[in-house]
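Retro notes (design track)

What went well: tokenization of the new backbones is finally stable.
What didn't: we kept losing track of which sequence belonged to which structure.
Fix going forward: every design gets posted as structure first, then sequence, in one message. First example under the new rule, 180 residues:
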């Protein structure tokens, strides 16, 4: 039972840390690309930086996957240990045991099985959620890299991927502004 409790504490700590990290690591692709549109030498730097960020995003996710897999096995181990206690009680009483004598081992079996499942289920959900967040962030970085390559080679953005126009201004308003 104690190993399952330790697994749950580790899983909660990893999930909270990753949520906080992902919150800080959010990138606004349009603003990022707008700032880089005039610098041709940054293409390689951006691609290299993206490759360095992926391991940081995936950090500790294998720990969650391991806990999600390990917790039910620990629960099964507790179930086996509880059944061994129940059968040891039967053996020590000469083959005849009361329900009260057996209930301790059966209780231990059911409790550890339930605890393993209670820890594994939300841990697996947390792992799946964080993995999808990582995949979305990597996709955004790849999309930004593609857009940068197109900006550097064609000097104009691909329509539909990223819009450099502020959402509240029309094209005529932008053309009328002398500072652009």
């Amino acid at each position: 039972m104690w190993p399952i409790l330790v697994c749950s504490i580790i899983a909660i700590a990893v999930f909270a840390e990753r949520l906080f990290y992902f919150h800080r690591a959010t990138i606004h692709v349009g603003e990022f690309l707008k700032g880089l549109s005039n610098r041709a030498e940054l293409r390689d730097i951006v691609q290299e930086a993206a490759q360095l960020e992926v391991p940081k995003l995936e950090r500790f996710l294998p720990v969650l996957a391991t806990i999600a897999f390990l917790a039910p096995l620990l629960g099964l181990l507790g179930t086996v240990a509880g059944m061994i206690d129940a059968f040891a009680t039967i053996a020590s009483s000469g083959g005849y045991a009361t329900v009260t004598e057996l209930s301790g081992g059966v209780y231990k079996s059911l409790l550890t099985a339930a605890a393993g499942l209670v820890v594994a289920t939300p841990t697996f959900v947390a792992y799946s959620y964080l993995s999808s967040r990582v995949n979305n962030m990597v996709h955004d970085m790849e999309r930004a890299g593609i857009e940068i390559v197109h900006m550097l080679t064609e000097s104009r953005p691909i329509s539909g991927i990223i819009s450099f126009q502020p959402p509240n201004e029309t094209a005529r308003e932008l053309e009328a502004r002398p500072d652009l």
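Added context from the reviewer: DSSP finds six helices and no strands in the chain.
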